[in-house]
Amino acid sequence: QVQLQQWGSGLLKPSETLSLTCAVYGGSFNGYYWSWIRQPPGKGLEWIGEINHSGSANYSPSLKSRFTISVDASKTQFSLNLSPVTAADAAVYYCARKDPVNGVDFWGQGTLVAVSS
Amino acid sequence: DVVMTQSPLSLPVTLGQPASISCRSSQSLVHSNGNTYLNWFQQRPGQSPRRLIYKVSNRDSGVPDRFSGSGSGTDFTLKISRVEAEDVGIYFCIQGTHWPYTFGQGTKLEIK
Q1: CB neighbours (10 Å) of residue B55?
Q2: Nearest CA-CA distance, residue B111 and chain A, Å
Q3: Taking a contact as any Cβ pair under 8 Å apart, which residues of chain A between 29 and 88 contact chain B?
Q4: How far apart are alpha carbons A71 and B13 in whole angstroms?
Q5: Which of A17, B38, B62, B69 is the most buried (most CB within 10 A)?
Q6: Are A18 and A114 in contact (CB under 8 A)?
Q7: Tell me, what DSSP letter sits at residue B30?
Q8: pLDDT, tens digit (0-9, with 9 covering 90-100), for B68-86
Q9: pLDDT in tens, A34-49
Q10: Beta pairing, strands A33-39 & A91-99
């Protein structure tokens, strides 16, 4: 069974850098896109971007400028950086796997990120 | 971006009764390769989302057969034939045809 386990900074001040990492257990790491999704409080889910095992990344055009997604295939991990954070970036952040044939399937447990001075 | 409109947003259902959730897209979700990338997820309280249905109507392994998906083009439906207590949670659709992928707002199913 595929499991995604994520961790990272939960409380940030404005202008700091958000860093989250997602580790993948079970299944193949190659052949999939590894994705980040967020949900601000009281709002809907928002796709941030995705990356494959070789480092080819795609970002949502409306969010592209401040996000960086990276991958370490040797550790079967991928990461999300966001800098600088603002209050509007407070959200639950999820990592997820996208199967190119059938779409998104497995998700991580989510990380609540708060931004406060 | 493709807008996904779900309805209803709140769905109180009596145990054993059917339930239906609609998901409409602002553009056709038929990909140039002929596939339609519309998936349905269930998120129980305190849990990560779990996929129920992929590509409109294909049920994932382990998903009870009381869940079914249907639709085409811009109009899709998730149906639960007989609601059980464990079905409480939020259901949402996601389109994976057009970049960036987008989500429905979510439907909160509760037991009456």
Answers
A1: 17
A2: 22
A3: 44-47, 58, 60-62
A4: 43
A5: B38
A6: no
A7: B
A8: 999 999 999 999 999 999 9
A9: 999 999 998 999 999 9
A10: antiparallel
